[in-house]
Amino acid sequence: MKISYKYRIYPTESQQEILQKVFNFCRFLYNSALEERNSYYKKYRKGISYLKQAAYLSEIKEEFKEQVKGSIYSQCLQSTLKQLNNAFDNFFRRVKQKLGKAGYPRFKSFDRYNSIRFPQSDFTCNGVKLTADTKHIEIFGIPGKINIEYHRPYEGICKTVVIKKHADKYYVVLSCIDVPIKPLPKTGKTISIDLGITKFIKTNENDVYYHPKPYRTAKEKLSYLNRKLASKQKGSNNRKKLKIKLARAHEKVANIRLDFQHKTANDLLKKYDKIILEDLNLISMLKSEEHIVKKANILDAAFGQFVSILTYKAERADKLLKFVSPVNTSKRCSKCGELKKDLTLHDRTYHCEYCGLEIDRDLNAALNILELGTSLDNFRSPTL
Predict the structure, then answer these.
(1) Residue 184 confidence (pLDDT)
(2) CA neighbours closer than 13 Å in the CB half-sphere of residue 168
(3) What's the pLDDT tens digit per position in 263-305?
(4) Cα-atom radius of gyration of the chain, to the nearest Å?
(5) By the 8 A CB rule, do 196 and 210 touch?
(6) Among 315, 225, 212, 221, which Cα is nearest to 259's?
(7) pLDDT band at 134; cut points 50, 70, 90
(8) Most CB atoms closer than 10 Å: which of 6, 8, 178, 364?
C-alpha cells in the first residue's frame, strides 16, 4: 500500500533564501510553460504535449545557467512540467465528466508555489539524502546540512520526496510504496456509523463522537485577521507578516481537525473488524438548498478527509470498510421499513406514524445503514 510521511525541517536563513530562489525559478518555469500552452493553442488550435516542452529544458538550463547550474536538480524541472501536464489532464477529465466547474489551470502567484519535487529520490540519494545519524538531511544545491525532526522511521520503498513550505515552516514529505500492513487484533464486531451534521458520528450502538468544530471556534479570529490584511499595503513588510500569521491560524484549524479524525479512526478500528458507512455525495449536499444552512458545519467536519483517513487505516490494519447507498437511510423506519417523506433536517427525533417507533434520527439512520451493510445485494464502492 501507499503512505506518505511528513517531517518538519529547520533550514537556516541562508538556506531558506536559496530554497526560495529554487521555488521562484520553478514557479517561473511553470508559468512560462502555461503561457506557451495558451499561445500554442491560440495559434494552432491544438495543445502541446509534455514531451515537446520537456525537450526544451536543456536550452532553458543553458539560458538560465546562473540560476540553475549547481542549485536546481534537473528532475525538479521535469517534475514542474509534469505538474502542469497533470493539471491539464485533470481539467479535461472534469470537463468530460461534467464535475461542476472544470477549473482551467491558472498562473501561480508568489504565495501559491512553495514546493519542489524529487521524483526518483529514495531519501538516500538523487537530490535528497537523510544522514546516518537521522538528524539532518542534505538537499541538492543547498550548502550544509538541514536539521530534521525525524520522529518516526518511514516504511516501504520511498519513491518521491517533496520539499514544501507552509507559512514560515518547512517540511519534507516522502511518498512510499509497498508499505507493510500492521494488522490490529480481531474483535469479531461489526458497526455502522451515520455521519451527521450536529454530531460527527452516531453509531448503531448509540455511541456519539462530537467533533471540535475548529473553524467555528476560530472564525472570529480569522475574520479579524482577514480584515487587517485587507487594510495593509500590498508589498509591505506588515502585510507579509500578517499573511504568515493568518496562514498559521488556518494551519492550527486544519491540525485540530486532522488530529481528531486520526484519533477517531484509530478508536473505531481498534474496536471493530467491520465498519459500514454511507457513500455520501458531499458535492450535492453542499449544493442542496436543504443543506445550505448547515453548509459551514459540513465543511468544518471534512467528511471526505475523514473517509480517506479511515480507508487507508482500515487497509493497513487489515479491517473491512464497507460503503452503502445513503438514499433514504434517514427517512426509512429501522423497525418497519416505512418511509417518512416529510422528514426535514430540523427533525432530530424520528417518529414513525405506522409502527409508533420514536428514536433519535441519527441512530435510526445508523441502524438502517447496518441493515444495508449486512446485505451483499447493497454493496457499493466508495466514490471519493
Answers:
(1) 95
(2) 11
(3) 999 999 999 999 999 888 776 666 665 555 567 778 888 898 9
(4) 25
(5) no
(6) 212
(7) very high
(8) 364
What separation, in Å, do the N-terminal and C-terminal C-alpha atoms of the chain show?
Answer: 17
Q: Are 192 and 203 in contact (CB under 8 A)?
A: yes
C-alpha distances out from residue 274 to 207, 316, 317, 364, 374, Å: 16, 14, 11, 19, 10
**Which residues, in sequence order, are CB contacts of 262 under 8 Å at separation 6+?**
309
Average pLDDT score over the chain: 90
Secondary structure letter of residue 250 according to DSSP: H
- 38-42, 161-165, 213-217, 346-350: least confident range: 346-350
- CA-to-CA distance for 127 and 117, rounded, in angstroms? 9
Grid coordinates given for 314? 482500515
- pLDDT tens, residue by residue, 323-358: 998 888 888 898 888 888 888 777 778 888 888 888
CA nearest to 115, candidates 242, 19, 252: 19
The three-point CA angle 221-222-227 to 5° equals 100
Three-point CA angle 86, 287, 202, nearest 5°: 100
Element (DSSP H or E) covering residue 268: helix 237-271
- Other CB atoms within 10 A of residue 73 CB: 21
Give the number of other CB atoms < 10 A from CB of residue 106. 10
- pTM of the shown model: 0.87
DSSP 329: T
State whether residue 23 is helix, strand or coil: helix
Q: Any residues with CB less than 8 A from the CB of 127 and at least 6 apart, and which? A: 73, 75, 76, 118, 121, 139, 140, 161
